[in-house]
Design brief:
Layout (H helix, E strand, L loop, with lengths): L1 H7 L16 H15 L3 E5 L2 H4 L10 H16 L3 E7 L5 H5 L8 H16 L5 E6 L1 H9 L14 H24 L5 E7 L2 E4 L4 H23 L7 H13 L12 H7 L5 E5 L3 E5 L13 H5 L2 E3 L16 H14 L5 E5 L11 H19 L4 E6 L19 E3 L8 E3 L1 H12 L10 H4 L22 E4 L1
Parallel strand pairs: 1-2, 1-13, 2-3, 3-4, 4-6, 5-7, 6-9, 9-10, 10-13
Antiparallel strand pairs: 7-8, 11-12
Helix pairs in contact: 2-4, 6-8, 7-8, 13-14, 14-15
GO biological process, one term: carbohydrate metabolic process
EC number: 3.2.1.21
Subunit structure: Homodimer.
Length: 474
């Protein structure tokens, strides 16, 4: 559906680009794995494209070329002692399924289950770490509330809730298919949730309550049904939507409830949490919030505002400011709220523009890894860490303007040359030395005359880094 979007409305992308070729990992996957070896990482998180496997959405036709590509990538990783961590769905729904309602259509639950079964059948002999759906909150909010992402459906009153409902059931469907049919493969199933940390703007009771709602609407909507003993949505999430719906004249809540069977089906349907984290917010609820949002809408239901401390270092993306203490706070919060689940950090990174001297990214990684080590010392059960991202890529509506890669990709070069940035050298040195060296300051321009130069440091494939977490790249 993203291909459809950029073809029908290319001006919707900030630089009028598309993802047809992007970094061209389809043809350059061996170079990608070579870069992973250069850095010394132990596992690689990547996403499988649903339409590449099932061009018509359903499992009645499987594209052999798509299967062959992912087989080749998986085998190349394993032959280089790199463990594949695979996401089944990262927002690229087959267009014909989008036209049938996408994640607003209840049929998608079983259709996604059939897709998951195809992946298990074809790759499960080698893939032992599966993640079902990437960032359901972001996907539902941007795609079905604000219409800022594909499929650009504008349903502010119910889009988040209906999309989220189907995604939770679809995730659980994929989990139970694995448990019932493929558990003999010896793998595990997780889900990818994104969350920032939230601070109250003041010490007022209203701001304290607003922070609780911030967590309920962003993380709790998806975390509570899976990772709590009782299952279901957070009660304050249920109550706020029901109360708002009633005052707006609705006879029933705009949030459709799960029945007991569905609650039990979703509850416990993950072996680990894959957590994406980038930044923090400051949360407030005061008179200025009244009339701020469309009525009815999920934003009005939540009833809070957010902003960021302008003193926090800013990335190229307006939404991204560095504040590493929030990372620590979030991890400890998850430990204490959700009985310390197994966590893999599956995205964490900083945006910049073009150029190899990405000092902001270097500082970001050092600070956030330091905060992560503090969280592990506090008993948080973190098993692995993925930097976002291995190389520059198509960043949705921002095209190639905002860059997250440790390797710069020359998008205008037909060969899509990859060149290590300063952050690549620093990241590699952290893995090699098992130390966050705040003084290490490599010059990427003197060292990057050719792509092989980064190999001058010994590659390392151990699964242990400073205590007990492992390094990877997305």
């Amino acid at each position: 559906m993203w291909d459809h979007l950029v073809r029908t409305d290319p001006n919707f992308i900030a630089d009028n680009t598309n993802g047809d070729i992007s970094a061209n990992s389809y043809k350059l996957y061996k170079r990608d794995v070579e870069m992973l070896k250069e850095l010394g990482v132990s596992f690689y998180k990547f996403s499988i494209s649903w339409p590449r496997i099932l061009p018509y959405g359903r499992a009645d036709y499987i594209n052999p070329y798509g299967i062959a590509y992912y087989n080749a990538l998986i085998d190349e990783l394993l032959s280089n002692d790199i463990t594949p961590f695979v996401t089944m769905y990262h927002w690229d729904l087959p267009q014909n399924l989008s036209e049938k309602g996408g994640w607003l259509n209840e049929d998608l639950v079983d259709i996604f289950g059939d897709y998951a079964r195809v992946l298990y059948e074809n790759f499960g002999d080698r893939v032992k770490h599966w993640m079902t759906i990437n960032e359901p909150y972001v996907h539902c909010y941007q795609g079905y509330v604000t219409a800022n992402h594909a499929p650009r459906v504008y349903l502010p009153a119910t889009g988040l809730y209906e999309c989220g409902r189907q995604i939770l059931l679809a995730h659980a469907r994929a989990y139970h298919i694995y448990q019932n049919e493929f558990k003999w493969q010896g793998g595990e199933i997780g889900v990818v949730l994104s969350m920032d940390w939230g601070y109250p703007a003041t010490d007022s009771e209203d701001d304290a309550e607003a922070v609780l709602d911030y967590f309920a609407f962003h993380l709790g909507q998806f975390m509570d049904p899976i990772f709590t003993e009782q299952g279901n949505y957070p009660q304050r999430f249920i109550d706020r939507i029901a109360n708002k719906s009633a005052t707006q004249g609705f006879q029933i809540s705009r949030l459709r409830p799960f029945n007991e069977q569905q609650i039990d089906y979703i509850k416990g349907s993950a072996d680990f949490l894959a957590l994406n984290h980038y930044t923090s917010d400051i949360i407030y609820r005061n008179a200025s919030v009244i009339g701020m949002y469309e009525v009815p809408s999920c934003n009005d239901d939540a009833g809070f505002g957010t902003y960021k401390d302008p003193s926090w270092p800013s990335g190229a993306s307006s939404w991204l400011r560095e504040h590493a203490p929030g990372f620590y706070n979030l991890l400890v919060y998850i430990k204490e709220t959700y009985n310390n689940p197994t966590i893999y950090i599956t995205e964490n990174g900083f945006s910049s523009m073009t150029g190899l001297n990405d000092d902001g990214r270097v500082q970001y990684f050092r600070n956030y890894l330091s905060a992560l080590l503090d969280a592990i010392s506090a008993g948080v059960n973190v098993r692995g860490y993925c930097a976002w991202s291995l190389m520059d890529n198509f960043e949705w509506t921002f095209g190639y303007i905002h860059r997250f890669g440790l390797y710069e990709v020359n998008i205008t070069d037909p060969n899509r040359k990859r060149t290590p940035k300063k952050s690549a050298y620093v990241y590699k040195e952290i893995i090699r030395s098992r130390i966050i060296d705040w003084e290490y300051d490599p010059d990427p321009y003197s060292q990057s005359s050719n792509a092989v130069s980064i190999q001058k440091y010994a590659s390392l494939t151990s699964f242990v880094l400073i205590l007990r977490f492992i390094f990877a790249l997305y």
